[in-house]
Structures are given as structure tokens and as C-alpha cells.
Amino acid sequence: MSKRIVSVLGARPQFVKAAVVSAALQDFGHEEVMVHTGQHYDYNMSEVFFQALNIPKPRYSLGIGGGLHGEMTGRQLMAIEQCLLTEKPDLVLVYGDTNSTLAGALAAVKLHIPVAHVEAGLRSFNMRMPEEVNRILTDRISRWLFTPSVIASGHLRAEGIASECVIEVGDVMHDAVLRFSRGDVELPVALPQRYGLVTIHRAENTDDEAHLEAIVDGLCRVAGSLPLIMPIHPRTRQRLATLGWLERLTRAVQVLEPVGYLEMLALQKHADVVITDSGGIQKEAFFLQVPCITLREETEWVETVDLGWNRLVPGLSGPSIEAAVLGAGRPETAQAQPYGDGRASARIAAALG
Ligand code: UD1
């Protein structure tokens, strides 16, 4: 049976997931109303995704981004509640682990509207990450928990979530990579023969001066032997500028404005190595079969590490980053597919019917 669904989104990775899930909801005959919280608001962090990925225009654009986490989440909660009172949906759909995810889920559950969580069950076991708090709380109050992998489903079972609520569908980002990584796209930079692609934005790296300094040092060292291209997140640019390190970095590394999804996939596909602290990019590199170095202590996407495509760099330092990046290589084992078969979105649409 088709449902009336309000989906809440607000940050860059959610636009990518919504591109494939919204299309599947529509194919199934569900009615979807989109609420954009405004957590990401720059043209190249938001609008460009809606245009390039053909995502339906949000009915509500709340314009609530920036500021402290509690304030952002609280203001979003208040505004989403009003949208839900007007729209009276059968269910609310949220994605991933951002402040917008938690605000959407909490607004719904307080109005007794059931919540569907796409990308449920991920855990880093690091409660200092805002994303970990957002995930755990959202999973706890969701009615449908759509997981990307066996391991994610296992985490939910271990936490005592009723098994009929846990639906293992595979990863919607796999659907997105399969759908959008073909075809040519014009890039804002001439690609060197060999290069590493860098993205950094996590609060645990940008807001920790020692981590950020180690990253700048590591990238400058690597750039001595391997050219680096880095589309820069606004958070990272702001922090580097404040600390006076932006110039040093841009002398060594080709720093770009944030790029769109199609451009990002192309930049990853042609890279020799990806260096990141993003969750989504660790998986995109895996799907595109490019070795990844993750500048974090732990990852939620443990399968990519276990299969040899991803390496963590614990105890970040300039030399440890340099050694990891220059030593990165492809594993010899055939590639397994721990994140499903690229048809997660259709399964989500069907499960909600
Ligand atoms: C958020 C999510 C993270 C996700 C990431 C993807 C949370 C807690 N974190 O982190 O899970 O992986 O998005 O990018 O929700 N800013 C701009 N322009 C923009 C967007 C942000 O200037 O378009 C600025 C904000 O004002 C803020 C900073 O960048 O100062 C960080 O943005 P924020 O939304 O807090 O978190 P992200 O680091 O993007």
C-alpha cells in the first residue's frame, strides 16, 4: 500500500542517499514530502546536488544551519514538528547520523509518527563523536531500521532492538555509485597522471588542533612525492584559516572548492589513493576499487578494512600519515560485496508499503 512519507534531510551525504531512495519511493507509488533543514546551505554543499541528481525540490526549506550542535538540533526539532503537524504523514524517513537525522526522528516520535531510519546499525563505539550519539538515539526510536550490512544488523540485535524492526537491505550508497559513476563529467582541475584525493571535515579532526596540525604536516609530506587534490569542506577551510595554516597547505596541495557528487565520483575513480575522514567516501572508494587511508582512530565501515581496501591511521602524526599513504596498495583478494547488491532503495520502498 502506498504511504504518505515526510523525509527529513539537511547535509551533503543525505542528498546523495535521497537521490536514489526518493526515486524508488516514487516508483513504488509512495507520496513523499521533503523537508530540508538547511544544515548545509552553501550552493556547492546543497543546491548543486539537487540539480545534478534530479532530487525533487523540498516543500519546506527551514534554513537552520550553523551554530552549536544543541542549538542547531533544537531549532530543527521545533521547526520539523510544525511541518509534521501540517503534513500528517504516515511515517517519517531519516538518513544517516547528522543533527538533522536526530531532529527529524525526535520530532516524529514525539507526535507518535513512526520513523524509518536508512543506514541504521552503524557504530564507531566512540561516544565523543556527535554522529555516534545521533545514530544510537535515532536507532532506538525508529520503527524500521534499514541496515547496510550483516555487521550493522548484529549491532542492533546486541542492543536489544526487536528483530522484526531490523531490515537488512544493503547500502543505498552502493545504489548511488552504480547509478551515477558512469559517464563523463567535466572536472574543475586537470588531473595529474597519479594523485591522491583528500577530504577532511570531521569535528574530531578539524576541532582538535593537534590532529589538524598532524594532518597538514602529513599532507605536505605526501605532496612531495604524490600530487594531492583536496575539495575542501567549509568547516575545514574556516579552521585552517583561523589557525593560519591554510596558506601552507595550499602551497603543497591543490585545494578546490567543494565539488558536486558526479565530480567527486570521477575524482575518486581516477585517484591512486583516497585520503579521508568521511564515512561515505570510505565506501565510495571501496565500490570504485581505490585504496583508502582513513585519518581516524576507528571506522563504522569495518568491512572495508577487513577486506584490505581501507587502512586506519591511529595516533595521527605527519610521518604516520605519510607512511600509510605512500604504502597504500590494492589487496590481492577478489572483491567481496558486504554492502548488498545495489538494490537497497527498492527494498526500502517495498518494506514501507
Ligand atoms: C555534518 C554531519 C556529518 C556529515 C557531514 C557531511 C553532524 C553532527 N555532522 O558535518 O555527520 O558527515 O555533515 O559533510 O550533523 N558550513 C558552511 N556551509 C555549508 C555547510 C556548513 O559554511 O554549506 C559550516 C557550518 O556553518 C559549520 C561548519 O561548516 O560552521 C560545519 O557544518 P556542520 O553542519 O556543523 O557539520 P559538518 O562538519 O558538515
TrEMBL record:
Write down the SUPFAM superfamilies for this protein, in alphabetical order: UDP-Glycosyltransferase/glycogen phosphorylase
Residue intervals of the UDP-N-acetylglucosamine 2-epimerase domain: 30-352
Q: Does the keyword ATP-binding apply?
A: yes
EC number from the UniProt entry: 5.1.3.14
Q: Which UniProt keywords apply?
A: ATP-binding, Isomerase, Nucleotide-binding
Q: Which InterPro entries match?
A: UDP_GlcNAc_Epimerase_2_dom (IPR003331), WecB-like (IPR029767)
Any one Gene Ontology molecular-function term assigned to this protein's record: ATP binding
Q: Which Gene3D superfamilies match?
A: Glycogen Phosphorylase B
Q: Which NCBIfam families match?
A: wecB
Q: What does the similarity note say?
A: Belongs to the UDP-N-acetylglucosamine 2-epimerase family.
Q: Mind telling me which PANTHER family this protein's record contains?
A: UDP-N-ACETYLGLUCOSAMINE 2-EPIMERASE
Q: What is this protein called?
A: UDP-N-acetylglucosamine 2-epimerase (Non-hydrolyzing)
Report the gene name. Answer: wecB
